[in-house]
Design brief:
heterodimer; A: mainly alpha; Ribonucleotide Reductase, subunit A; 22 helices; B: 119 residues; alpha+beta; Ubiquitin-like (UB roll); 5-stranded mixed beta sheet; 14% helix
Chain lengths: 512, 119
Amino acid sequence: MNTPNPNERLRKLSLKERYAHLTRGLDWQPTYQDKKKIFPFTDYEGIKIHDWDAFEDPFRLTMDSYWKYQAEKERKLYAVIDSFAQNNGQMNISDARYINALKIFITAVSPLEYAAHRGFAHVGRHFEGVGPRIACQFQAIDELRHAQTQIHTISHFNKFFDGLHDPLHMYNRVWYLSVPKSFFEDAITAGPFEFLTAVSFSFEYVLTSLLFVPFMSGAAYNGDMATVTFGFSAQSDESRHMTLGLEIIKFMLQQDEGNVPIVQKWIDKWFWRGYRLLSIIAMMMDYMLPKKIMSWKEAWEMYFEQGGGALFNDLSRYGIRLPKYHEVAKAEKDHYSHQAWSTFYQYSHASAFHTWTPSEEEMTWFAEKYPASFNQLYRPRYDYWAKAEADGKRFYNNGLPQLCQVCQIPTFFTEPTDPTRISTRTKIYNGERFYFCSDGCHDIFEDEPEKYLQSWLPVHQILQGNCGGTTVPEVLDWYHLNQGADNFDYLGSPDEALWENWQSARKRVIAS
Amino acid sequence: MTTTAIGTYTFPSRDRIENFHGLQLVYFLWDKHLMFSAPITLVLPPTLPFSEILGEVLPNLYGAHPQFAEIDWSTVEWELDGVAFIPMPTLTLTALGIDHKSLLRFRTPGLEGLAQASF
Protein backbone atom coordinates (compact mmCIF):
# COMPACT_ATOMS: atom_id res chain seq x y z
CA MET A 1 0.00 0.00 0.00
CA ASN A 2 1.21 3.46 -0.79
CA THR A 3 0.99 5.63 2.31
CA PRO A 4 1.19 9.33 1.45
CA ASN A 5 4.21 10.94 2.98
CA PRO A 6 2.88 13.59 5.40
CA ASN A 7 6.12 15.52 5.09
CA GLU A 8 5.97 15.88 1.35
CA ARG A 9 5.18 19.49 0.42
CA LEU A 10 2.43 20.06 -2.03
CA ARG A 11 3.48 21.60 -5.30
CA LYS A 12 2.44 25.22 -5.38
CA LEU A 13 -0.22 25.95 -7.97
CA SER A 14 0.65 28.26 -10.81
CA LEU A 15 -1.09 31.61 -11.02
CA LYS A 16 -3.20 30.33 -13.89
CA GLU A 17 -4.28 27.26 -11.95
CA ARG A 18 -5.13 29.29 -8.87
CA TYR A 19 -7.22 31.66 -10.95
CA ALA A 20 -8.96 28.72 -12.61
CA HIS A 21 -9.86 27.27 -9.20
CA LEU A 22 -11.25 30.62 -8.11
CA THR A 23 -13.36 31.28 -11.15
CA ARG A 24 -14.34 27.94 -12.66
CA GLY A 25 -16.42 25.12 -11.28
CA LEU A 26 -17.12 26.70 -7.90
CA ASP A 27 -20.60 27.84 -8.87
CA TRP A 28 -23.51 25.42 -8.89
CA GLN A 29 -26.81 25.13 -10.68
CA PRO A 30 -29.61 25.85 -8.21
CA THR A 31 -32.27 23.14 -7.96
CA TYR A 32 -34.85 24.42 -5.47
CA GLN A 33 -34.52 28.15 -6.23
CA ASP A 34 -35.32 29.81 -9.51
CA LYS A 35 -32.08 31.11 -10.98
CA LYS A 36 -33.85 34.30 -12.02
CA LYS A 37 -34.53 35.05 -8.39
CA ILE A 38 -30.87 34.65 -7.51
CA PHE A 39 -29.72 36.83 -10.42
CA PRO A 40 -32.68 39.12 -11.05
CA PHE A 41 -30.73 41.67 -13.12
CA THR A 42 -29.18 39.41 -15.75
CA ASP A 43 -31.74 39.58 -18.55
CA TYR A 44 -33.80 42.72 -18.34
CA GLU A 45 -31.40 44.99 -20.19
CA GLY A 46 -31.70 42.78 -23.26
CA ILE A 47 -28.06 41.64 -23.31
CA LYS A 48 -27.74 37.97 -24.22
CA ILE A 49 -24.87 35.90 -22.80
CA HIS A 50 -24.53 32.31 -24.00
CA ASP A 51 -21.31 31.28 -22.29
CA TRP A 52 -20.17 33.10 -19.15
CA ASP A 53 -16.95 31.10 -19.04
CA ALA A 54 -15.87 32.79 -22.25
CA PHE A 55 -15.00 35.85 -20.15
CA GLU A 56 -11.27 35.88 -19.56
CA ASP A 57 -9.71 38.21 -17.04
CA PRO A 58 -6.27 38.93 -18.50
CA PHE A 59 -4.91 39.75 -15.03
CA ARG A 60 -6.07 36.46 -13.47
CA LEU A 61 -6.00 38.06 -10.09
CA THR A 62 -6.44 35.94 -6.97
CA MET A 63 -7.09 36.94 -3.36
CA ASP A 64 -3.63 36.15 -2.00
CA SER A 65 -1.78 38.08 -4.70
CA TYR A 66 -4.21 40.99 -4.43
CA TRP A 67 -3.78 41.35 -0.68
CA LYS A 68 -0.01 41.03 -0.76
CA TYR A 69 0.47 43.47 -3.60
CA GLN A 70 -1.95 46.11 -2.34
CA ALA A 71 -0.57 46.00 1.20
CA GLU A 72 2.92 46.62 -0.17
CA LYS A 73 1.75 49.58 -2.24
CA GLU A 74 -0.11 51.15 0.63
CA ARG A 75 2.83 50.81 3.02
CA LYS A 76 4.88 52.80 0.52
CA LEU A 77 2.12 55.39 0.03
CA TYR A 78 1.67 56.01 3.75
CA ALA A 79 5.44 56.32 4.23
CA VAL A 80 5.48 59.07 1.60
CA ILE A 81 2.45 60.82 3.10
CA ASP A 82 4.16 60.78 6.52
CA SER A 83 7.37 62.21 5.23
CA PHE A 84 5.47 64.81 3.20
CA ALA A 85 3.78 65.95 6.42
CA GLN A 86 7.01 65.89 8.44
CA ASN A 87 8.82 67.94 5.84
CA ASN A 88 6.00 70.48 5.51
CA GLY A 89 5.47 69.49 1.90
CA GLN A 90 2.53 71.87 1.68
CA MET A 91 5.03 74.74 1.65
CA ASN A 92 6.79 73.44 -1.45
CA ILE A 93 3.90 73.50 -3.88
CA SER A 94 4.09 75.91 -6.82
CA ASP A 95 1.46 78.31 -5.50
CA ALA A 96 -1.54 78.09 -3.16
CA ARG A 97 -3.89 78.51 -6.14
CA TYR A 98 -3.01 74.89 -6.94
CA ILE A 99 -4.89 73.74 -3.81
CA ASN A 100 -8.13 74.61 -5.61
CA ALA A 101 -7.54 71.69 -7.97
CA LEU A 102 -7.38 69.47 -4.87
CA LYS A 103 -10.64 71.01 -3.63
CA ILE A 104 -12.29 69.90 -6.86
CA PHE A 105 -10.65 66.50 -6.54
CA ILE A 106 -11.70 65.78 -2.96
CA THR A 107 -15.28 67.04 -3.41
CA ALA A 108 -16.00 65.81 -6.95
CA VAL A 109 -13.74 62.79 -7.56
CA SER A 110 -13.14 61.04 -4.22
CA PRO A 111 -16.89 60.64 -3.54
CA LEU A 112 -17.13 59.06 -7.00
CA GLU A 113 -14.56 56.48 -5.93
CA TYR A 114 -16.80 55.57 -3.04
CA ALA A 115 -19.86 55.49 -5.31
CA ALA A 116 -17.88 53.24 -7.67
CA HIS A 117 -17.13 50.94 -4.74
CA ARG A 118 -20.86 50.59 -4.15
CA GLY A 119 -21.59 50.06 -7.82
CA PHE A 120 -18.95 47.38 -8.29
CA ALA A 121 -19.92 45.62 -5.06
CA HIS A 122 -23.46 45.46 -6.46
CA VAL A 123 -22.53 44.05 -9.86
CA GLY A 124 -19.90 41.84 -8.17
CA ARG A 125 -22.85 40.14 -6.52
CA HIS A 126 -25.26 40.18 -9.43
CA PHE A 127 -23.31 39.00 -12.45
CA GLU A 128 -24.20 35.48 -13.28
CA GLY A 129 -20.71 34.57 -14.45
CA VAL A 130 -17.94 34.05 -11.89
CA GLY A 131 -15.15 35.61 -13.98
CA PRO A 132 -16.70 39.07 -14.28
CA ARG A 133 -18.07 38.78 -10.75
CA ILE A 134 -14.60 38.30 -9.27
CA ALA A 135 -13.15 41.09 -11.40
CA CYS A 136 -15.89 43.44 -10.16
CA GLN A 137 -15.35 42.41 -6.55
CA PHE A 138 -11.66 43.27 -6.76
CA GLN A 139 -12.52 46.56 -8.35
CA ALA A 140 -15.04 47.27 -5.57
CA ILE A 141 -12.22 46.90 -3.04
CA ASP A 142 -9.92 49.05 -5.19
CA GLU A 143 -12.45 51.86 -5.30
CA LEU A 144 -12.95 51.79 -1.56
CA ARG A 145 -9.18 51.89 -1.04
CA HIS A 146 -8.88 54.77 -3.48
CA ALA A 147 -11.54 56.80 -1.69
CA GLN A 148 -9.74 56.16 1.58
CA THR A 149 -6.21 56.82 0.41
CA GLN A 150 -7.29 60.00 -1.38
CA ILE A 151 -8.94 61.30 1.76
CA HIS A 152 -5.86 60.41 3.81
CA THR A 153 -3.52 62.05 1.30
CA ILE A 154 -5.47 65.26 0.96
CA SER A 155 -6.40 65.52 4.66
CA HIS A 156 -2.93 66.91 5.28
CA PHE A 157 -3.81 70.00 3.22
CA ASN A 158 -7.03 70.40 5.20
CA LYS A 159 -4.88 71.41 8.20
CA PHE A 160 -3.87 74.57 6.35
CA PHE A 161 -6.27 75.41 3.54
CA ASP A 162 -10.02 76.09 3.29
CA GLY A 163 -12.70 74.23 1.37
CA LEU A 164 -11.46 70.70 2.08
CA HIS A 165 -13.24 70.06 5.36
CA ASP A 166 -16.49 68.29 4.45
CA PRO A 167 -16.32 66.72 1.00
CA LEU A 168 -18.99 64.03 1.35
CA HIS A 169 -21.56 66.41 2.78
CA MET A 170 -20.80 68.89 0.01
CA TYR A 171 -21.00 66.18 -2.64
CA ASN A 172 -24.60 65.55 -1.63
CA ARG A 173 -25.66 69.19 -1.58
CA VAL A 174 -23.51 71.75 -3.39
CA TRP A 175 -24.95 72.87 -6.72
CA TYR A 176 -22.05 72.04 -9.06
CA LEU A 177 -21.33 68.75 -7.28
CA SER A 178 -24.69 67.44 -8.42
CA VAL A 179 -22.93 67.07 -11.79
CA PRO A 180 -20.61 64.19 -10.73
CA LYS A 181 -23.18 62.85 -8.26
CA SER A 182 -25.98 62.60 -10.83
CA PHE A 183 -23.57 61.10 -13.36
CA PHE A 184 -22.74 58.26 -11.05
CA GLU A 185 -26.25 57.74 -9.72
CA ASP A 186 -27.45 57.44 -13.29
CA ALA A 187 -24.90 54.65 -13.82
CA ILE A 188 -25.48 52.88 -10.54
CA THR A 189 -29.27 52.74 -11.06
CA ALA A 190 -28.86 51.16 -14.48
CA GLY A 191 -28.50 47.42 -14.96
CA PRO A 192 -25.15 45.65 -14.49
CA PHE A 193 -24.21 45.67 -18.17
CA GLU A 194 -24.99 49.33 -18.65
CA PHE A 195 -23.13 50.14 -15.43
CA LEU A 196 -19.98 48.46 -16.75
CA THR A 197 -20.35 50.13 -20.15
CA ALA A 198 -20.74 53.47 -18.39
CA VAL A 199 -18.05 53.24 -15.76
CA SER A 200 -15.57 50.57 -16.86
CA PHE A 201 -15.62 51.26 -20.56
CA SER A 202 -16.75 54.80 -21.35
CA PHE A 203 -15.28 56.39 -18.28
CA GLU A 204 -12.32 54.26 -17.20
CA TYR A 205 -11.22 53.10 -20.62
CA VAL A 206 -12.12 55.90 -23.00
CA LEU A 207 -11.99 59.02 -20.84
CA THR A 208 -9.92 58.26 -17.74
CA SER A 209 -6.69 59.63 -19.19
CA LEU A 210 -8.47 62.95 -19.29
CA LEU A 211 -9.38 62.75 -15.62
CA PHE A 212 -6.48 61.06 -13.95
CA VAL A 213 -3.57 62.36 -15.96
CA PRO A 214 -4.41 66.04 -15.48
CA PHE A 215 -4.77 65.63 -11.73
CA MET A 216 -1.70 63.47 -11.21
CA SER A 217 0.60 65.20 -13.68
CA GLY A 218 -0.81 68.46 -12.37
CA ALA A 219 0.21 67.41 -8.87
CA ALA A 220 3.70 66.44 -10.08
CA TYR A 221 4.21 69.71 -11.96
CA ASN A 222 3.05 71.70 -8.98
CA GLY A 223 5.15 70.07 -6.29
CA ASP A 224 2.45 68.00 -4.60
CA MET A 225 4.42 64.79 -4.10
CA ALA A 226 1.81 63.26 -1.79
CA THR A 227 -0.93 63.29 -4.41
CA VAL A 228 1.50 62.12 -7.10
CA THR A 229 2.35 59.11 -4.94
CA PHE A 230 -1.32 58.33 -4.55
CA GLY A 231 -1.54 58.48 -8.34
CA PHE A 232 1.32 56.02 -8.78
CA SER A 233 -0.20 53.75 -6.17
CA ALA A 234 -3.56 53.72 -7.97
CA GLN A 235 -2.07 53.41 -11.46
CA SER A 236 -1.78 49.60 -11.55
CA ASP A 237 -5.39 49.32 -10.33
CA GLU A 238 -6.52 51.76 -12.98
CA SER A 239 -4.93 49.75 -15.75
CA ARG A 240 -6.76 46.68 -14.45
CA HIS A 241 -10.03 48.65 -14.44
CA MET A 242 -9.46 49.81 -18.00
CA THR A 243 -8.81 46.25 -19.09
CA LEU A 244 -12.04 45.09 -17.45
CA GLY A 245 -13.84 47.84 -19.38
CA LEU A 246 -12.49 46.72 -22.73
CA GLU A 247 -12.90 43.00 -21.98
CA ILE A 248 -16.51 43.36 -20.90
CA ILE A 249 -17.38 45.31 -24.04
CA LYS A 250 -15.72 42.73 -26.28
CA PHE A 251 -17.40 39.95 -24.30
CA MET A 252 -20.87 41.44 -24.84
CA LEU A 253 -20.19 42.08 -28.51
CA GLN A 254 -18.87 38.56 -29.10
CA GLN A 255 -21.66 36.79 -27.24
CA ASP A 256 -24.57 37.85 -29.41
CA GLU A 257 -25.07 40.06 -32.43
CA GLY A 258 -28.24 41.43 -30.87
CA ASN A 259 -26.10 43.02 -28.18
CA VAL A 260 -24.39 45.39 -30.64
CA PRO A 261 -27.11 48.08 -30.95
CA ILE A 262 -27.71 48.07 -27.18
CA VAL A 263 -24.01 48.51 -26.46
CA GLN A 264 -23.74 51.24 -29.10
CA LYS A 265 -26.61 53.14 -27.51
CA TRP A 266 -24.90 52.96 -24.12
CA ILE A 267 -21.57 54.04 -25.58
CA ASP A 268 -23.28 57.05 -27.17
CA LYS A 269 -24.96 57.97 -23.91
CA TRP A 270 -21.99 57.45 -21.60
CA PHE A 271 -19.49 59.09 -23.87
CA TRP A 272 -21.63 62.21 -23.79
CA ARG A 273 -22.28 62.11 -20.04
CA GLY A 274 -18.59 61.51 -19.32
CA TYR A 275 -17.51 64.24 -21.70
CA ARG A 276 -19.86 66.76 -20.06
CA LEU A 277 -18.53 65.78 -16.63
CA LEU A 278 -15.01 66.48 -17.88
CA SER A 279 -15.84 70.15 -18.47
CA ILE A 280 -14.87 70.73 -14.85
CA ILE A 281 -11.54 68.97 -15.49
CA ALA A 282 -10.98 71.07 -18.60
CA MET A 283 -11.33 74.16 -16.44
CA MET A 284 -9.09 72.73 -13.74
CA MET A 285 -6.33 71.92 -16.25
CA ASP A 286 -6.34 75.26 -18.01
CA TYR A 287 -7.03 77.60 -15.11
CA MET A 288 -6.26 76.02 -11.73
CA LEU A 289 -2.77 74.65 -12.27
CA PRO A 290 -0.21 77.43 -11.73
CA LYS A 291 2.27 75.29 -13.68
CA LYS A 292 0.41 73.88 -16.62
CA ILE A 293 0.85 70.45 -18.20
CA MET A 294 -0.94 70.85 -21.50
CA SER A 295 -4.12 72.57 -22.60
CA TRP A 296 -7.51 70.87 -22.51
CA LYS A 297 -7.57 71.11 -26.26
CA GLU A 298 -4.25 69.29 -26.59
CA ALA A 299 -5.36 66.66 -24.10
CA TRP A 300 -8.61 66.08 -25.98
CA GLU A 301 -6.76 65.74 -29.26
CA MET A 302 -4.19 63.35 -27.83
CA TYR A 303 -6.38 61.16 -25.65
CA PHE A 304 -9.68 61.18 -27.44
CA GLU A 305 -9.28 62.16 -31.08
CA GLN A 306 -6.13 60.06 -31.53
CA GLY A 307 -6.30 57.44 -28.76
CA GLY A 308 -10.08 57.03 -28.90
CA GLY A 309 -10.02 57.10 -32.68
CA ALA A 310 -7.69 54.08 -32.75
CA LEU A 311 -9.85 52.25 -30.19
CA PHE A 312 -13.05 52.74 -32.15
CA ASN A 313 -11.27 51.75 -35.31
CA ASP A 314 -10.45 48.50 -33.58
CA LEU A 315 -14.04 48.03 -32.37
CA SER A 316 -15.49 48.66 -35.84
CA ARG A 317 -15.03 44.97 -36.64
CA TYR A 318 -17.85 44.27 -34.16
CA GLY A 319 -20.07 46.91 -35.78
CA ILE A 320 -19.33 49.64 -33.21
CA ARG A 321 -18.74 53.20 -34.44
CA LEU A 322 -17.46 56.37 -32.78
CA PRO A 323 -19.89 57.73 -30.19
CA LYS A 324 -22.62 60.04 -31.41
CA TYR A 325 -21.77 63.77 -31.08
CA HIS A 326 -18.01 63.23 -30.87
CA GLU A 327 -17.82 65.95 -33.54
CA VAL A 328 -19.57 68.36 -31.15
CA ALA A 329 -16.87 67.71 -28.57
CA LYS A 330 -14.30 68.47 -31.25
CA ALA A 331 -16.00 71.77 -32.08
CA GLU A 332 -16.25 72.68 -28.39
CA LYS A 333 -12.60 72.06 -27.51
CA ASP A 334 -11.63 75.67 -28.27
CA HIS A 335 -14.20 76.95 -25.77
CA TYR A 336 -14.89 74.31 -23.13
CA SER A 337 -12.55 75.34 -20.32
CA HIS A 338 -13.05 79.09 -20.87
CA GLN A 339 -16.82 78.90 -20.69
CA ALA A 340 -16.68 76.77 -17.54
CA TRP A 341 -14.22 79.09 -15.75
CA SER A 342 -16.23 82.18 -16.75
CA THR A 343 -19.25 80.59 -15.13
CA PHE A 344 -17.50 79.74 -11.88
CA TYR A 345 -15.94 83.21 -11.82
CA GLN A 346 -19.38 84.85 -11.79
CA TYR A 347 -20.72 82.41 -9.19
CA SER A 348 -17.59 82.52 -7.04
CA HIS A 349 -19.64 83.65 -4.05
CA ALA A 350 -21.40 80.26 -4.07
CA SER A 351 -18.43 77.92 -4.70
CA ALA A 352 -16.29 76.01 -2.23
CA PHE A 353 -13.09 76.94 -4.09
CA HIS A 354 -11.49 80.20 -5.16
CA THR A 355 -11.50 81.86 -8.55
CA TRP A 356 -9.42 84.60 -10.14
CA THR A 357 -8.88 86.39 -13.42
CA PRO A 358 -5.91 84.87 -15.26
CA SER A 359 -2.59 86.71 -15.28
CA GLU A 360 -1.17 88.31 -18.42
CA GLU A 361 1.33 85.44 -18.64
CA GLU A 362 -1.47 82.88 -18.51
CA MET A 363 -3.46 84.77 -21.13
CA THR A 364 -0.45 84.70 -23.44
CA TRP A 365 -0.32 80.94 -22.94
CA PHE A 366 -4.06 80.67 -23.68
CA ALA A 367 -3.68 82.77 -26.83
CA GLU A 368 -0.96 80.39 -28.02
CA LYS A 369 -2.90 77.23 -27.13
CA TYR A 370 -6.26 78.54 -28.36
CA PRO A 371 -5.43 80.69 -31.38
CA ALA A 372 -8.93 80.31 -32.85
CA SER A 373 -10.82 81.57 -29.84
CA PHE A 374 -8.99 83.08 -26.89
CA ASN A 375 -8.05 86.59 -27.99
CA GLN A 376 -11.29 87.13 -29.86
CA LEU A 377 -13.78 85.84 -27.31
CA TYR A 378 -12.27 85.23 -23.90
CA ARG A 379 -9.48 87.74 -23.30
CA PRO A 380 -11.95 90.66 -23.52
CA ARG A 381 -13.93 89.10 -20.65
CA TYR A 382 -10.99 88.85 -18.35
CA ASP A 383 -9.74 92.32 -19.26
CA TYR A 384 -13.16 93.73 -18.47
CA TRP A 385 -13.58 91.77 -15.24
CA ALA A 386 -10.06 92.55 -14.02
CA LYS A 387 -10.70 96.25 -14.56
CA ALA A 388 -14.07 96.06 -12.80
CA GLU A 389 -12.31 94.31 -9.91
CA ALA A 390 -9.63 97.01 -9.78
CA ASP A 391 -12.39 99.65 -9.70
CA GLY A 392 -14.00 97.90 -6.73
CA LYS A 393 -16.89 96.58 -8.81
CA ARG A 394 -16.13 92.88 -8.97
CA PHE A 395 -18.78 91.26 -11.21
CA TYR A 396 -21.13 88.64 -9.78
CA ASN A 397 -24.17 87.12 -11.43
CA ASN A 398 -27.31 88.01 -9.44
CA GLY A 399 -29.42 85.16 -10.75
CA LEU A 400 -29.31 81.39 -10.44
CA PRO A 401 -28.37 79.60 -13.66
CA GLN A 402 -30.66 77.36 -15.67
CA LEU A 403 -29.42 73.76 -15.35
CA CYS A 404 -29.55 71.03 -17.96
CA GLN A 405 -32.10 68.38 -16.97
CA VAL A 406 -29.64 65.58 -17.76
CA CYS A 407 -26.03 66.62 -17.05
CA GLN A 408 -27.14 69.26 -14.50
CA ILE A 409 -24.47 71.70 -15.70
CA PRO A 410 -25.61 75.32 -16.14
CA THR A 411 -26.61 75.65 -19.78
CA PHE A 412 -23.56 77.77 -20.60
CA PHE A 413 -22.26 75.85 -23.61
CA THR A 414 -22.56 77.61 -26.94
CA GLU A 415 -23.75 76.20 -30.26
CA PRO A 416 -21.09 74.04 -31.94
CA THR A 417 -21.45 76.25 -35.02
CA ASP A 418 -21.62 79.61 -33.21
CA PRO A 419 -19.57 80.29 -30.06
CA THR A 420 -21.54 83.51 -29.40
CA ARG A 421 -24.92 81.82 -29.07
CA ILE A 422 -25.95 79.82 -25.97
CA SER A 423 -27.16 76.37 -26.92
CA THR A 424 -30.44 75.21 -25.42
CA ARG A 425 -32.73 72.36 -26.42
CA THR A 426 -36.21 71.74 -25.11
CA LYS A 427 -38.80 69.01 -25.01
CA ILE A 428 -42.31 68.65 -23.63
CA TYR A 429 -42.98 65.36 -21.89
CA ASN A 430 -46.29 64.57 -20.19
CA GLY A 431 -47.30 68.21 -20.50
CA GLU A 432 -44.19 69.51 -18.75
CA ARG A 433 -41.32 71.42 -20.36
CA PHE A 434 -37.69 70.37 -19.92
CA TYR A 435 -34.47 72.11 -20.98
CA PHE A 436 -31.11 70.68 -22.02
CA CYS A 437 -27.68 72.03 -22.85
CA SER A 438 -27.21 70.07 -26.06
CA ASP A 439 -28.52 67.50 -28.50
CA GLY A 440 -26.52 64.89 -26.59
CA CYS A 441 -28.35 65.49 -23.32
CA HIS A 442 -31.68 65.94 -25.13
CA ASP A 443 -31.36 62.51 -26.73
CA ILE A 444 -30.50 60.86 -23.41
CA PHE A 445 -33.66 62.34 -21.89
CA GLU A 446 -35.77 61.35 -24.86
CA ASP A 447 -34.67 57.75 -24.50
CA GLU A 448 -35.62 57.46 -20.79
CA PRO A 449 -37.65 60.52 -19.75
CA GLU A 450 -39.05 58.83 -16.65
CA LYS A 451 -35.55 58.54 -15.27
CA TYR A 452 -34.50 62.15 -15.76
CA LEU A 453 -37.71 63.84 -14.68
CA GLN A 454 -36.58 62.79 -11.19
CA SER A 455 -33.37 64.85 -11.46
CA TRP A 456 -32.57 66.69 -8.23
CA LEU A 457 -31.61 69.97 -9.85
CA PRO A 458 -29.98 72.14 -7.19
CA VAL A 459 -31.34 75.45 -8.54
CA HIS A 460 -34.90 74.16 -8.64
CA GLN A 461 -34.50 72.62 -5.20
CA ILE A 462 -33.35 75.96 -3.79
CA LEU A 463 -36.38 77.64 -5.37
CA GLN A 464 -38.71 74.98 -3.94
CA GLY A 465 -37.34 75.87 -0.52
CA ASN A 466 -35.61 72.56 0.15
CA CYS A 467 -32.06 73.81 0.72
CA GLY A 468 -31.94 75.54 4.07
CA GLY A 469 -33.59 78.83 3.17
CA THR A 470 -34.26 81.39 0.48
CA THR A 471 -31.13 83.54 0.73
CA VAL A 472 -27.68 82.66 -0.58
CA PRO A 473 -26.06 82.70 2.91
CA GLU A 474 -28.70 80.29 4.22
CA VAL A 475 -28.13 77.90 1.33
CA LEU A 476 -24.36 78.12 1.77
CA ASP A 477 -24.74 77.29 5.46
CA TRP A 478 -26.78 74.27 4.45
CA TYR A 479 -23.87 73.29 2.17
CA HIS A 480 -21.47 73.55 5.19
CA LEU A 481 -19.57 76.12 3.20
CA ASN A 482 -17.47 78.29 5.47
CA GLN A 483 -18.46 81.69 4.12
CA GLY A 484 -15.79 84.28 3.64
CA ALA A 485 -13.10 81.58 3.71
CA ASP A 486 -14.08 78.85 1.25
CA ASN A 487 -15.78 81.04 -1.35
CA PHE A 488 -14.96 84.22 -3.32
CA ASP A 489 -11.70 85.13 -5.05
CA TYR A 490 -8.28 83.79 -4.16
CA LEU A 491 -7.05 87.35 -3.80
CA GLY A 492 -8.01 88.42 -0.32
CA SER A 493 -8.73 84.88 0.89
CA PRO A 494 -7.30 83.30 4.06
CA ASP A 495 -5.55 80.79 1.75
CA GLU A 496 -3.70 83.63 0.06
CA ALA A 497 -2.84 85.31 3.39
CA LEU A 498 -1.37 82.06 4.74
CA TRP A 499 0.63 81.39 1.58
CA GLU A 500 2.02 84.93 1.45
CA ASN A 501 2.96 84.61 5.09
CA TRP A 502 4.95 81.44 4.37
CA GLN A 503 6.61 83.08 1.38
CA SER A 504 7.70 86.14 3.34
CA ALA A 505 8.96 83.97 6.22
CA ARG A 506 11.04 82.06 3.70
CA LYS A 507 12.47 85.29 2.29
CA ARG A 508 13.39 86.44 5.79
CA VAL A 509 15.25 83.18 6.40
CA ILE A 510 17.14 83.52 3.12
CA ALA A 511 17.99 87.15 3.86
CA SER A 512 19.27 86.49 7.38
CA MET B 1 -39.21 55.43 -25.01
CA THR B 2 -39.71 53.82 -21.64
CA THR B 3 -36.98 53.31 -19.11
CA THR B 4 -35.43 49.85 -19.16
CA ALA B 5 -36.32 48.54 -15.73
CA ILE B 6 -37.14 45.37 -13.80
CA GLY B 7 -40.73 46.48 -13.18
CA THR B 8 -43.21 49.30 -13.69
CA TYR B 9 -41.27 52.54 -13.79
CA THR B 10 -43.29 55.73 -13.38
CA PHE B 11 -42.46 58.62 -11.11
CA PRO B 12 -43.84 62.11 -10.55
CA SER B 13 -41.68 64.88 -11.94
CA ARG B 14 -39.56 66.46 -9.23
CA ASP B 15 -40.10 69.94 -10.65
CA ARG B 16 -43.82 69.81 -11.39
CA ILE B 17 -45.45 73.18 -10.86
CA GLU B 18 -47.26 72.09 -7.66
CA ASN B 19 -43.90 71.91 -5.91
CA PHE B 20 -43.36 75.66 -6.29
CA HIS B 21 -46.07 76.79 -3.85
CA GLY B 22 -48.23 78.71 -6.31
CA LEU B 23 -45.27 80.15 -8.22
CA GLN B 24 -43.71 79.05 -11.48
CA LEU B 25 -40.24 79.04 -13.01
CA VAL B 26 -39.22 81.23 -15.95
CA TYR B 27 -35.79 81.29 -17.58
CA PHE B 28 -34.32 84.47 -19.13
CA LEU B 29 -31.53 84.78 -21.66
CA TRP B 30 -30.10 87.98 -23.15
CA ASP B 31 -28.56 86.98 -26.46
CA LYS B 32 -25.00 88.09 -27.30
CA HIS B 33 -24.28 89.06 -23.71
CA LEU B 34 -22.16 86.22 -22.42
CA MET B 35 -21.10 88.19 -19.35
CA PHE B 36 -24.10 86.28 -18.01
CA SER B 37 -22.87 82.82 -18.81
CA ALA B 38 -26.18 80.93 -18.87
CA PRO B 39 -29.93 81.58 -18.89
CA ILE B 40 -31.13 82.74 -15.47
CA THR B 41 -33.84 80.92 -13.48
CA LEU B 42 -36.49 82.90 -11.60
CA VAL B 43 -39.46 81.82 -9.55
CA LEU B 44 -42.39 84.18 -10.27
CA PRO B 45 -46.14 84.44 -9.68
CA PRO B 46 -48.09 83.41 -12.81
CA THR B 47 -50.17 86.57 -12.31
CA LEU B 48 -47.16 88.86 -12.76
CA PRO B 49 -47.75 91.40 -15.54
CA PHE B 50 -45.04 91.54 -18.18
CA SER B 51 -44.48 95.24 -17.43
CA GLU B 52 -42.94 94.17 -14.11
CA ILE B 53 -40.56 91.88 -15.89
CA LEU B 54 -39.38 94.83 -17.93
CA GLY B 55 -39.42 97.30 -15.07
CA GLU B 56 -38.21 95.22 -12.12
CA VAL B 57 -37.01 91.74 -12.99
CA LEU B 58 -34.66 92.33 -15.91
CA PRO B 59 -32.96 95.47 -14.49
CA ASN B 60 -32.15 93.54 -11.34
CA LEU B 61 -30.68 90.64 -13.33
CA TYR B 62 -28.87 92.46 -16.11
CA GLY B 63 -28.46 96.04 -14.90
CA ALA B 64 -24.75 95.54 -14.20
CA HIS B 65 -24.06 95.34 -17.92
CA PRO B 66 -23.16 98.74 -19.42
CA GLN B 67 -25.37 98.13 -22.46
CA PHE B 68 -28.47 97.43 -20.41
CA ALA B 69 -29.30 101.10 -19.88
CA GLU B 70 -29.12 101.68 -23.65
CA ILE B 71 -31.81 99.17 -24.55
CA ASP B 72 -34.71 100.56 -26.58
CA TRP B 73 -37.40 98.12 -25.48
CA SER B 74 -39.59 98.88 -28.50
CA THR B 75 -37.00 97.28 -30.78
CA VAL B 76 -36.29 94.19 -28.69
CA GLU B 77 -36.94 90.85 -30.40
CA TRP B 78 -38.36 88.11 -28.17
CA GLU B 79 -38.51 84.37 -28.44
CA LEU B 80 -40.61 82.16 -26.18
CA ASP B 81 -39.21 78.62 -26.18
CA GLY B 82 -37.75 79.14 -29.62
CA VAL B 83 -40.80 80.77 -31.22
CA ALA B 84 -41.01 84.50 -32.12
CA PHE B 85 -43.10 86.25 -29.51
CA ILE B 86 -44.57 89.71 -28.93
CA PRO B 87 -45.23 90.35 -25.23
CA MET B 88 -47.99 92.80 -24.26
CA PRO B 89 -46.76 94.65 -21.14
CA THR B 90 -50.16 94.68 -19.46
CA LEU B 91 -50.77 90.94 -19.73
CA THR B 92 -49.74 88.39 -17.12
CA LEU B 93 -47.40 85.46 -17.60
CA THR B 94 -50.38 83.10 -17.81
CA ALA B 95 -52.23 85.29 -20.31
CA LEU B 96 -49.12 85.47 -22.46
CA GLY B 97 -48.73 81.69 -22.45
CA ILE B 98 -45.44 81.82 -20.54
CA ASP B 99 -45.72 78.41 -18.90
CA HIS B 100 -43.79 76.81 -16.08
CA LYS B 101 -40.11 76.39 -17.12
CA SER B 102 -40.45 78.48 -20.29
CA LEU B 103 -37.39 80.24 -21.67
CA LEU B 104 -37.66 83.88 -22.75
CA ARG B 105 -34.79 84.77 -25.02
CA PHE B 106 -34.36 88.37 -26.09
CA ARG B 107 -32.15 90.06 -28.64
CA THR B 108 -31.31 93.76 -28.57
CA PRO B 109 -30.52 94.85 -32.15
CA GLY B 110 -27.51 97.15 -32.25
CA LEU B 111 -26.40 96.06 -28.79
CA GLU B 112 -24.33 92.96 -29.40
CA GLY B 113 -22.16 92.84 -26.28
CA LEU B 114 -18.80 94.39 -25.44
CA ALA B 115 -15.48 94.33 -27.33
CA GLN B 116 -17.07 92.58 -30.32
CA ALA B 117 -16.92 89.47 -28.20
CA SER B 118 -20.67 89.09 -27.60
CA PHE B 119 -19.82 89.68 -23.97
